[in-house]
Write a structure and sequence with these properties.
about 120 residues, alpha+beta, 4-stranded antiparallel β-sheet, 4 helices, 4 strands
């Protein structure tokens, strides 16, 4: 079983959505990301080089949220998962994208999409 680094509530304004007004006006998107990896080497060495620097990774998540527009939250989540799996130490990642200002006509608190991606050979 892997250890986890969890980042919750990363916020950025993005221009994702299928409607023209969403692409034009933008809205706040929120990401929760859990990286699954072994933290044993970092715990032993007390060296950030032996883990994923979560501050730097948070910047990457925010860059995806505020970056190239996508129609679907699923696409935004996949882009973040791809960034996470670019770290050789990360075995798997779970990404939740929240869109609390989604264009829904009934009262609601949040809309979110969650994906989990793993390296080949790691159980999904």
């Amino acid at each position: 079983m892997s250890d986890r680094i969890t980042l919750t509530g990363i916020r950025a304004t993005g221009y994702h959505g299928v409607y023209a007004h969403e692409r034009r006006e933008g809205q706040v998107f929120i990401a929760d990301v859990a990286l699954e990896l072994s933290l044993a080497a970092a715990a032993q060495s007390d060296d950030v080089a032996d883990t994923v620097h979560y501050g730097e990774f948070a910047d990457q998540v925010a860059a995806v949220l505020s970056g190239e527009p996508a129609d679907l939250l699923e696409t935004v989540a996949q882009r973040i998962a791809d960034r996470a799996l670019a770290y050789a130490r990360v075995d798997a990642v779970e990404v939740t994208i929240h869109k609390p200002q989604a264009p829904i006509t009934v009262p609601f608190d949040d809309v979110s999409v969650t994906i989990r991606r793993a390296r080949e050979g790691v159980p999904a």
